C-alpha cells in the first residue's frame, strides 16, 4: 500500500472488516454489526464506486430481488488487529485521503 489512511467512518470500517474476511451481503453485514440495512447498501455502493470492494456474486431471488455479495479488494484494503481492535487502512488517491480524513462527509449523501 502506497498511501494508506485510516478509516474515520464507523460503518465503512465495519463493512470493510467484514468483507475482508469473506464475501458478504449488505443484509449479512447489517445483521453481524447492527448497522441499518439501508446504510449498508448505500455504503457498499459507495465503496464499490471507489474501487475498495467488488461484487463477487449475484443471486436473483423472487422475494428479495437481486442479492449481491461484496468482497474487499486486498490490494486496496488492509485490516490488521492491534491490541484486540481491528484497524482498517485503505490505499486511495491523495484527494480521496483528504476527504476521508475529514470524516467522509463529502461522500455520504
CATH superfamily assignment? Winged helix-like DNA-binding domain superfamily/Winged helix DNA-binding domain
Q: How much is the radius of gyration in Å?
A: 14 Å
| Number of helices, counting only DSSP H or I runs of 4 residues or more | 4
Quickly name the level 1 CATH class. Answer: Mainly Alpha
Helix content: 25-40%
Q: How is this structure best described in words?
A:
The N and C termini lie far apart (28 Å). This protein has a single domain (4-101), classed as Winged helix-like DNA-binding domain superfamily/Winged helix DNA-binding domain (Arc Repressor Mutant, subunit A). It has helices at 10-21, 26-33, 37-49, 94-101, and strands at 4-6, 53-61, 65-72, 77-82, 85-91. The chain is globular. Mean pLDDT is 80; it is low at 104-109. The chain contains 4 helices and 5 strands; from the N terminus they run E-H-H-H-E-E-E-E-H. It has a 3-stranded antiparallel beta sheet. A two-stranded antiparallel ribbon has the order 2-3.
Task: Write a concise synopsis of the structure shown.
By secondary structure, this protein is α+β, with helices and mostly antiparallel strands. It has one domain: Arc Repressor Mutant, subunit A (Orthogonal Bundle).
SSE topology sketch:
Layout: E1 4-6, H1 10-21, H2 26-33, H3 37-49, E2 53-61, E3 65-72, E4 77-82, E5 85-91, H4 94-101
Antiparallel strand pairs: 1-5, 2-3, 4-5
Helix pairs in contact: 2-3
Attribute tags:
single chain, about 110 residues, alpha+beta, Arc Repressor Mutant, subunit A, three-stranded antiparallel β-sheet, two-stranded antiparallel sheet, globular
Amino acid at each position: 500500500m502506497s498511501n494508506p489512511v485510516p478509516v474515520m467512518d464507523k460503518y465503512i470500517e465495519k463493512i470493510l472488516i467484514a468483507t475482508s474476511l469473506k464475501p458478504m451481503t449488505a443484509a449479512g453485514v447489517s445483521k453481524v454489526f447492527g448497522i441499518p440495512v439501508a446504510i449498508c447498501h448505500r455504503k457498499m455502493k459507495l465503496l464499490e464506486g471507489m474501487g475498495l470492494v467488488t461484487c463477487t456474486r449475484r443471486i436473483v431471488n423472487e422475494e428479495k430481488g437481486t442479492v449481491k455479495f461484496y468482497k474487499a479488494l486486498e490490494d486496496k484494503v488492509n485490516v490488521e488487529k492491534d491490541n484486540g481492535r481491528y484497524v482498517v487502512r485503505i490505499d486511495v488517491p491523495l484527494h480521496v485521503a483528504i476527504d476521508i480524513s475529514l470524516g467522509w462527509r463529502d461522500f455520504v449523501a
